[in-house]
Amino acid sequence: MDRYQRITQRIARIAQHVWEGGAISRDDARVLTKASGDELYDLFYWANKLRLKHVGSNVKYCSIVAAKVGACSEDCGFCSQSGHFDTGVQPTKMTVDEMRLAAEQATANGASSFGIVNSGRGPTDRELDWLEPFFKQAAEQGRIRPCATLGELTLPQARRLRDMGVKRINHNLETSRRNFPNVVSTHTYEDRVRTLQIAKASGLSICSGGIFGLGEDWEDRLDVAFELRDLGADVVPINFLNRIEGTPMSEGGEDLPPMVALQIIAVYRFILPDREIKVAGGREKILRDLQSWIFFAGASSFLIGNYLTTFGRSPEQDHQMLRDLGVSYVTYDEVEHEAPVHTTPGPARDGALMTLPVVS
């Protein structure tokens, strides 16, 4: 038996276990990371099968807007908004009316979720006062799911956001616990985990993922995936580093190859089979002509429109991509209005199954 047969049969056996509701082990996940060349097409095939089984064929759009930009106290090495780096980003702040207009545009583009994103380590009570009218109105209108990316939260703040009508909090782990000090020094990995635990305890759905291309290896990528599984993340954004001039991460290093970026999506689908896996920042730059492959690799949603301080492509281009694929997207009216809250899955197994799968 040659290498291709060995690897692809093991991928198929692992996929069968996940198909049947099992949680894969770390050793199984490592097998998936070893796939290369033509083996990747088998990996993507099974990741897509798992997507179709666990989350269905339709995809979702999400939109975000930077309501408070720049002058951030933190030194995240990838971020153009840090006050520690000279990136040319000028501090700005939206009015509530501007947020409403942005939400209306996101709804018109077909987004089912809309996130308000603020720079800074965490919100002040005064900033929550500023955001409250927008969140309350968005929740009352029921046209789009209001989400928030505000940094670290206390339990009273999380509960207040919930009472405003916020359904979901985004707070990314960014990278593994081991790699984190290479990326950020002004706060810790544990600080990020604590905010996710607080959000979960307050009854909010949590959206958390990472940025890939930060000098991590496959073990780091697996660390993030298994941590997110343990934390019960409901939505997992997968971002690819878009190097911004003036940030430490813009210096040296190579961009992820498109096929490796797709492999990350596929491996995450195996580890997190029933979660919404969202392709976010860096899609256009890193995937280039392979953007439409994100669904075949297991993704179930993606950001439409612009990012925080960088431009995406036009919504019409993304609509056309879905039309070309014969894929439909669902709006807020067509999805569950109450965001799911996932719990920790059952125990993982130690090794791959020894029988080939039969998947209809």
Note the topology:
Elements: H1 3-19, H2 26-33, H3 39-54, E1 59-69, E2 92-93, H4 96-108, E3 113-118, H5 125-141, E4 145-149, H6 155-164, E5 168-170, H7 189-201, E6 205-207, E7 210-212, H8 218-231, E8 235-240, H9 258-271, E9 276-279, H10 283-287, E10 301-303, H11 315-325, E11 329-330
Parallel strand pairs: 1-3, 1-10, 1-11, 3-4, 4-5, 5-6, 7-8, 8-9, 9-10
Antiparallel strand pairs: 1-2
Helix pairs in contact: 1-3, 2-8, 3-9, 4-5, 8-9
Describe the structure.
- By secondary structure, this protein is of the alpha/beta class.
- The protein has one domain (51-333): Alpha-Beta Barrel (TIM Barrel), CATH 3.20.20.
- The chain is built from eleven helices and eleven strands.
- It has helices at 3-19, 26-33, 39-54, 96-108, 125-141, 155-164, 189-201, 218-231, 258-271, 283-287, 315-325, and strands at 59-69, 92-93, 113-118, 145-149, 168-170, 205-207, 210-212, 235-240, 276-279, 301-303, 329-330.
- Strands 1, 2, 3, 4, 5, 6, 7, 8, 9, 10 and 11 form an eleven-stranded mixed beta sheet that branches.
- β5 (168-170), α7 and β6 (205-207) form a beta-alpha-beta unit.
- α4 (96-108) packs parallel to α5.
- The chain is globular and about 65 Å long.
- It starts with a helix and ends in a 30-residue tail after the last strand.
- 46% of the residues are buried.
- Mean pLDDT is 90; it is low at 337-341 and 343-360.
End-to-end gap = 26 Å
CATH topology label: TIM Barrel
Give the class from helix and strand content and strand pairing: alpha/beta
Task: Report the count of strand segments.
Answer: 11
β-strand percent reads: 5-15%
CATH level 4 superfamily: Aldolase class I
Number of domains: 1
Residue windows where pLDDT falls under 50 for at least 5 positions: 337-341, 343-360
Major sheet description = 11 strands, mixed
Mean pLDDT: 90
Q: What is the number of helical segments per DSSP (H or I, 4+ residues)?
A: 11
Specify the overall morphology.
globular
